[in-house]
Amino acid sequence: MEIKSIFLSSLHESLVIIILIFILMILVEFIVLRYKNKIIKFTKKNKFLEYVTSSFFGVIPGCVGTFAMDSLYMAGLLSFGGIIAVMISTSGDEAFLLISMAIKNIIPWITLIILIIVLFILGIIGGFIADYYKRKTNMKFCEKCKIINHKNEEFKLTHFLKEHVYKHIIKKHIWRIFLWIFAAIFIIELLQGKINLQFTGVSMFYVLIIASLVALLPISGPNVFLVVIFSKGLIPFSVLLANSIIQDGHGLLPILGFSIKDAFKIKLFNFVIGLIIGLILLGFGL
C-alpha cells in the first residue's frame, strides 16, 4: 500500500474515532459533574465503600473522575488506599479510545467489559493492600491542604460549554488525542506493510516491560500506541492490562503539583502491582 493511501486511510479512521471520543467525553464530563457529590458521600461511610467509590471514579473514562478524587486526597479526605484504587482502575483518555473501538467493532465488547471489571476489582484490592502496607510501615505523606469547591455555576450551559467543553476537552485533550491516534495508526500500518510485526516468546516479555515503563509517564498520549497495537492483535491482554494498571493518563498531574514524594509513592505502588499482574497473566499465555 502506498504511503499516501496509508496516510488517508489512517486520517479517516482517526477522524471517525475522535468524533466518537469527543461525544463520549462531553457526556462523561457532564454526568460526573452533575452527580459526583452524591457518589462521593459513600466514601465517608466505611473503608470498603471508600475503595469501591474510588475505583468506580477511576474506571470512569477520561480524567474528570480521577481529578475529583485527587482533590479529596489533597484535602486529606481520601486515604492512600483510596487514591491507589483510583489510579489502578483508571485508564485515562485511552478508555475513550477503547470504547470508540468497541463501538466500531475494532475490538470485541467483551474484551472491553472484562478490562473494566478487572481494573475495578484490582482497584479495590489494591486499595486494601496499600492502606495495610501504610499501617505496617508507618509511611509518611505530605500534609494535606484545604479543598477548593467548584462554583455552582458549573451546571449552567454557557459555563459548561466554555469551561468544560472548550477549555478542558477541546483545548487540553481532543487535539492531542487525535494526533496520538493518527500517529499510532499511521506508523503501525506503515510498519506492517514493510515488516512482519509479530511479538512472541521472549520478545513479548520485553514488550510488557516497555509497556509498563511507558505507563509511568504522567500523560496519556504514548499509551495510545499500546491500545492501537492491541487492536491489531499484536500484543496480548496481559500487556494492555499491565499498562492500564500503571498508567493514569493526566490523573496524577494534580498530585505531582501537590507533592512529588506522594506521586512517586503512588506510581511505584501501581508499577509493582501492574508488572506482577502482567507477568502472571503473560505466564499463562493471556
Can you walk through the features of this model?
- With 286 residues, the protein is mainly alpha-helical.
- It has one domain.
- Helix content is 74%, strand content 0%.
- Helix 1 packs across helix 5.
- It is globular and about 60 Å long.
- The model has no long low-confidence stretch (mean pLDDT 81).
Q: Helix- and strand-based class?
A: mainly alpha
What is the N-to-C succession of helices and strands?
HHHHHHHHHHHH
Largest sheet entry: none
Give the overall shape, derived from the CA principal axes: globular
Residue runs with pLDDT of under 50 for 5 or more positions: none
| Radius of gyration from CA coordinates | 19 Å
Question: N-to-C terminal Cα separation, in Å?
Answer: 32 Å
Chain-averaged pLDDT: 81
Percentage of residues in strands: under 5%
- Specify the oligomeric state: single chain
Beta-strand segment tally: 0
What is the number of helical segments per DSSP (H or I, 4+ residues)? 12
Query: What count of domains describes the coordinates?
Result: 1
User: Helix coverage percent of residues?
Assistant: over 70%
Q: Strands, helices and their partners?
A:
Layout: H1 3-40, H2 47-59, H3 64-74, H4 80-89, H5 94-103, H6 109-137, H7 157-194, H8 202-214, H9 221-231, H10 237-246, H11 253-258, H12 260-283
Main traits of this protein?
0% strand, 286 residues, globular, 12 helices, mainly alpha
State the gist of this model.
The protein is mostly helical. It has twelve helices and no strands. Helix 9 runs antiparallel to helix 10.
